[in-house]
Amino acid sequence: MKRDFYPDGCQQGFTLIEIMVAMLLGLFLLGGGLQVVTHSKTTYRTQEALSRMQENARFAMDFLAKEIRMAGFIGCGNQDALTNTLNTPTAFLYNFGTAIEGFESSSATAWTPSINNLAIPSPLPSALPGSDIITVRRVDNQGFTVPTHVTATDGLTLDATATTANLKSAGFLTSTATNNCATAVVTDCSTAAVFQVSGVAGTVLAHATGGACTLQNATDDLGKTYANGQVYPINTISYYVRKKPGYQPGLYRKKGREDAEELIEGIEKMQILYGVDTDITADGTANYYVTADKVLVPDWRKVVSVRISLLLVSLDDNLTDKPVSYTYNGVQEPGDRHLRKVFTSTIALRNRLS
Question: Are 330 and 291 in contact (CB under 8 A)?
Fold first, then answer.
């Protein structure tokens, strides 16, 4: 670049054209730098969103797989003849003879079978239309041995591990060490009986009729004695998609009469197929997969596997240049600027394979 100097050797300065050219070149360089930064940020946000979606899908499938695999587990024997002494043995929350049950989203507002009158209060509050619901029934993880049980109407005397802390942990006692009115099952690996814990005295679980609990026993007779058996809390656990106002939809779990709790965010829809073993001599292999509304009531005992499809949505918006349509469950949706991805898994019911 040519410069003029005064006679004493001092620099005279740049011309207006030179300054404008330099500014133009600077703008080009600045624009290129900003473009690199913008693309890098977009790539980072996209990769982070995809990673979060994969992580959420893995956690959701882990939760569902664990529950579904254990459906129908009632202690040491999964094929026990079950006696239900409750006064509402076929009510949704206490129908423990049906290990697994589904509800197909049959329209934008309804499910088949209907979930509207399953229990009071509603067992599945604010379920998101368009997504299926799955319910499993099984015992909890923590149980106790019953070393002494003299008659079928006597309380169940538990082993020495049934401390106050352990009874609270298992759900038989509340935080104030009073009866938690738990629903329980006692089993000796050949038969089992479901009952309401009407009282806890030391290490003895009572199962009398009447009492202060909402649920009642129709009889205090368990049908037999269960000395050297095992006793566990037993629950009905439902998984469904729900959306809180102002939040992304997520996978929720509702255990018995407890409040629903969010497990994983970013689960937009859930579709479920049930594998039914229709062989005369059951071999534990599904002959076909159908939606919940196509499973006849007696055939729920023949369901041996479950195929779950989850539609994950990114928590962040504006990850694409324009709205992107997507296809889920054979239907094309208009979409928006969120990212979406479908994850599918097939889960076997362990207690139907033995």
Answer: no
Q: Which whole-number Å values give the CA distances from 246 to 152, 243, 315, in the listed order? A: 53, 8, 12
Distance, in Å, from the CA atom of 273 to the CA atom of 277, rounded to the nearest integer, reads 13
Q: For residues 163 and 77, what is the distance between their CA atoms, to the nearest angstrom?
A: 25
pTM of the entire structure? 0.85
- Cα–Cα distance, 293 to 133 (Å, whole number): 11
Radius of gyration over alpha carbons of the chain, in Å? Answer: 30
Cis peptide bond upstream of 129, omega within 30: no
Quote the CA–CA distance of 142 and 52 in Å, as a whole number: 32
DSSP three-state, residue 317: coil
Helix, strand or coil, per DSSP, at residue 330: coil
pLDDT in tens, 53-63: 999 999 999 99
Give the percent of the chain with pLDDT over 90.
Answer: 53
DSSP 259: P
Those residues with Cβ within 8 angstroms of residue 13's Cβ, 6 or more apart along the chain or in another chain: none
**Do 77 and 187 form a contact (C-beta atoms < 8 A)?**
yes
Q: What gap in Å lies between CA 130 and CA 107, rounded to an integer?
A: 7
Contacts of 50 (CB under 8 A, 6+ apart): 314, 339, 341
**Per-position DSSP letters for 161-209, written without gaps between them:** T--HHHHHHHTSB-TTSSB---EEEEE-SSEEEEEE--EEETTEEE--S
CA distances (Å), origin 66, targets 21, 249, 277: 67, 22, 21
Nearest by Cα to 187 from 233, 226, 141: 226
Contacts of 176 (CB under 8 A, 6+ apart): none
Question: Which ranges of the chain does DSSP label H, i.e. alpha helix?
Answer: 16-69, 164-170
pLDDT digits 0-9 by tens, 104-122? 998 878 899 888 767 655 6
